[in-house]
């Protein structure tokens, strides 16, 4: 019986899966870690899966709709000549974001609560959970702005995800990186920004929890700690998001 299982449904390595799906091995590793591809770890710490599970991704119409494919979606391909700063891991970061399934998903109470709290504890009129594809920043949750997204070129969060913890701009009009930004010159007239990276299980920064004000300011120590704590909670929610189906968790 065991021999039939091996013959009919062989075990595949990440490299073999990558060749079958036409994506990078690093992308397969991220999909396995996030749960987008069912897998297990060997005693040596290597990911493995079954051919049947990969065939399901290749042939299932539902999987074709719901499984992200960074290899074909330009939103999850690094920009050729980005006008915003990127890390050397941008390709893997975008693959992780695609695997999360969070971009363009439904509103969820768990994230809405976190931006409301971030706004309240820092006294900021605007608070966002922002996710960064290669072409836009999309707001999973927001307080104080009506827009659901902006071009990636305008995103302060592109700078924030390069940091380990808190990224602060106390006065955007005095910062040459941002003074000509449309979000500074026009509505919502950003002057103050503070953002914390939100990371998935593999440590990739998918976006930020950020607060914004229309006046220059600084955060007090207690406000900084509260924002960091809320970002930790948001990251934990993202890491527990399964395969990123975007279903609401309202209760």
From TrEMBL:
GO molecular function: DNA binding
Origin superkingdom: Bacteria
Pfam family, one: GAF
SUPFAM superfamilies: GAF domain-like, Putative DNA-binding domain
Domain GAF, residue spans: 106-248
Name of this protein: GAF domain-containing protein
């Amino acid at each position: 019986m065991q021999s039939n299982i091996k013959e009919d449904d062989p075990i595949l390595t990440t490299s073999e899966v990558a060749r079958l799906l036409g994506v990078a091995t690093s992308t397969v590793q991220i999909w396995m870690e996030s749960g987008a591809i069912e897998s297990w770890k060997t005693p040596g710490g290597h990911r493995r899966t079954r051919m049947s599970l990969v065939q399901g991704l290749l042939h299932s119409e539902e999987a074709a709709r719901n499984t992200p494919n960074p290899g074909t979606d330009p939103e999850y391909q690094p920009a050729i000549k980005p006008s915003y700063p990127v890390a050397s891991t941008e390709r893997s970061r975008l693959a992780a974001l695609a695997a999360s399934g969070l971009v363009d998903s439904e509103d969820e109470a768990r994230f809405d609560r976190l931006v409301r709290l971030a706004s309240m504890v820092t006294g900021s009129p605007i608070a966002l959970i922002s996710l960064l594809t290669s072409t836009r920043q999309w707001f999973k949750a927001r307080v104080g702005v009506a827009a659901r997204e902006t071009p990636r070129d305008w995103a302060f969060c592109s700078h924030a995800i390069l940091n380990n913890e808190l990224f602060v701009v106390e006065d955007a009009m005095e910062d040459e990186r941002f003074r000509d930004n449309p979000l500074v010159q026009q509505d919502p007239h950003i002057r103050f920004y503070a953002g914390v990276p939100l990371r998935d299980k593999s440590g990739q920064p998918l976006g930020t929890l950020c607060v914004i004000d229309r006046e220059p300011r600084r955060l007090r120590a207690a406000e900084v700690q509260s924002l960091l704590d809320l970002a930790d909670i948001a990251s934990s929610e993202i890491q527990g998001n399964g395969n990123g189906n975007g279903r609401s968790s309202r209760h």
